[in-house]
């Protein structure tokens, strides 16, 4: 990895070699957006592996009816921590990693606006990650109340619940700092000529995501702080024994939780919006409507939270409002899908690995969108709430949506990061393997859910056995594909093996990131670049 | 072709496909071959919602099929275009990229049309949403209370009022689960000791609440699912149209035994229901105290202490001292009097303009016990015994 990341000292830039620390200090004291981006990506991949291991434990136990390996309490800990680690440890930080690496490069800025805060927001994640992953070793084991941490079950948890709450607080603080950094960078540090409406969509989607994060992370912090005081300081916000309201917790949690869903998918839209035009050799169709669609999704995401709560017994008007509002989200999301397809239409397409992932994303994510539409119908949702159908739905949008888009982004931009091309055959094996195993894992879950199998069950009636076995086999395959990706695709690139990457390895890629050499030098755009009229080329 | 027919066709075909997939994956488990469909519960490798047993469930089922069809049509249309493009507009086929990248008309079209479609979808569902919430005019009202980890049922209103029992998973099933090698039985994890019995074609209102954490009471065949929330009362309803056994499971994570608190509703004919109610009433009566029994002092005091602590101690205090305006019982003339009639009358009818409520809902035995207790507790050592028969007489 050092070969990749030590390039800055060479090629006539010797004067920079002493500007910044080396060895471990380079990472601990990192203020460079590229180094911090790398740290974020490595951290999130580590968490992806830990969360994935927990998922495999879940699937192992569910491979057959009966409890063969874990007691139900431990099983609940696995499902809870799998969710928390994947959401807060893997998906969210990974997108921040992409933002750190790419946003300054895409808008022609020298670095992020607050370099030291950037360092702080990364290093805060380490203790939080350790606390989350380490909670299994605390007395009573890890939290087992589900990733949604519903009261009053949280009141029955052991001390690891407090550690979990503390970890979420820290991660929230880190996210807020990251968001402020991204907003300030985008609004203040664009190169002259890079107007907002010429910005790459990745920057746009992240700008909107950052506002969502700032709006809702404090809401989560409030919910879990009230949980904490209910646990230890005699308050009764959510504790019915003292007159508290457990449903209030759900309202507060989902007021955070639903925008959170879009926090995890909007940057994915940005990545895909860069890749599809590049490999279609055609400009993105409907740039302006893409921006408006993203903003509409963000605004709508604030008024649909209670569709997670149809079975709590809302009044009929509440159910109708949240049902209609939820269905409306399909409109701007549909606009995006149509725009991507219109971009491909009459293009001149090639299917290198990034494009495969992007098209795979489009296809499979849309399936998750359709099940979302079906779940939005309150009467159907009441049937399917808390069943495996919901598990299938959100893995279609979070794995096939967020994760697939990130793989697309890695294959697309890693040549810029490492200066090396990935091995195309291995990239394709990774894609097809992941796509097939993903569907083997999650497609049968739709059937399980329709047949009434509840989620978070350690054991189930015999009739559900076959589909559970199939899902477990798929999960193992999917997990192994990701190990394959790291060992045989990423490691070689990071170790400087493979073909050298050109400055612009993709024929029709557009944007300022392709105006700097590969690998990107330690410092880029130290003086504001002069841009052409489209703000995609540097002209001096 | 009607929705229902399509539903069945779809189910049959898809099921064959699924079985083929299971076989392909090399593990068409030994399980599937020996387990049968559970009528009213899950079927082996079931692919769609349960066969509907209520009007609402039938509505939900056809809504679901309608949504599937609409989504499938859109999916095929949209991705048909995409795959056509993928196969035709390739660089390897020498396709040159077009230059267009904007069209306001197209953007408006694909905003407005989906908008109309989703509003139409919402409109399809609205009637069911309203119908599901209409819990008025129920024939029988049953309270389902979620406990960690069992269900408690109280028949509150209608025929069977007063029946009350707990429903727990068969302990053998729980042990089989722990063993890791459960037998392939059709109702594995769904067998309870006491099923909820309801008459067919009657509107049953289920009130849910919980004792500890949130649970959810659900029976898929009825399309009923309602969270049971501690400290709060919620309701839902169903009118089962077919006699039979129907199964559900707790649907909201409630701790470690979440998977082990099933729901079993037995729908029976009206006659069978009346018979069942009679049987339950007789059982309850058999368990109740015999009002003609002659009690010994010590027995009555022990029983009375329980009654006192449950009902009286909140005001009169555990030591019988009373507090403020609440009269003390220690040394009280009424309590110590040889003539019991005044004390019994206060208990049956209340006193002080209602500040001492009437306790006539307690049984004769309970009132006799608590009177005897107050006469023989603390400093009140009168040695007097009041028998249930005395209360019975006083009630007349």
Shape of chain A: globular
Largest sheet of chain A: none
Which oligomerization state do the chains in this entry correspond to?
A: heterodimer
* Range of helix content of chain A: 55-70%
Q: How would you explain this protein's 3D organization?
A:
The complex is a heterodimer of chains A (540) and B (396). Helices cover 65% and strands 0% of the residues of chain A. Chain A is mostly helical and 540 residues long. In chain A, helix 8 (201-232) runs antiparallel to helix 10 (266-280) and helix 17 (424-450) packs antiparallel against helix 18 (465-494). The radius of gyration of chain A is 23 Å and the shape is globular. The model of chain B is unreliable at 1-7 and 26-32 (pLDDT under 50). The N and C termini of chain B lie far apart (69 Å). With 396 residues, chain B is an alpha+beta fold. Chain B contains twelve helices and ten strands. In chain B, helix 3 (55-88) packs antiparallel against helix 4 (104-133), helix 7 (297-311) crosses helix 11 (364-376) and helix 11 (364-376) crosses helix 12.
List descriptors.
heterodimer; A: 540 residues; 0% strand; B: 396 residues; alpha+beta; 5-stranded mixed beta sheet; 3-stranded mixed beta sheet; disordered N terminus
Write the topology of this structure.
The complex is a heterodimer of chains A (540) and B (396).
Chain A: H1 2-5, H2 23-28, H3 33-62, H4 72-107, H5 115-123, H6 125-134, H7 160-188, H8 201-232, H9 246-263, H10 266-280, H11 287-300, H12 316-328, H13 330-344, H14 353-376, H15 378-384, H16 388-418, H17 424-450, H18 465-494
Helix pairs in contact in A: 3-4, 3-5, 3-18, 4-6, 4-7, 4-16, 5-7, 6-7, 7-8, 8-9, 8-10, 8-11, 10-13, 10-14, 10-16, 11-13, 13-14, 14-16, 14-17, 16-17, 17-18
Chain B: H1 3-24, H2 30-34, H3 55-88, H4 104-133, E1 140-147, E2 150-157, E3 164-167, H5 171-179, E4 196-199, E5 204-210, E6 215-219, E7 224-228, E8 234-238, E9 244-248, E10 263-268, H6 270-287, H7 297-311, H8 313-316, H9 333-336, H10 341-349, H11 364-376, H12 388-395
Parallel strand pairs in B: 1-5, 4-10
Antiparallel strand pairs in B: 1-2, 2-3, 5-8, 6-7, 9-10
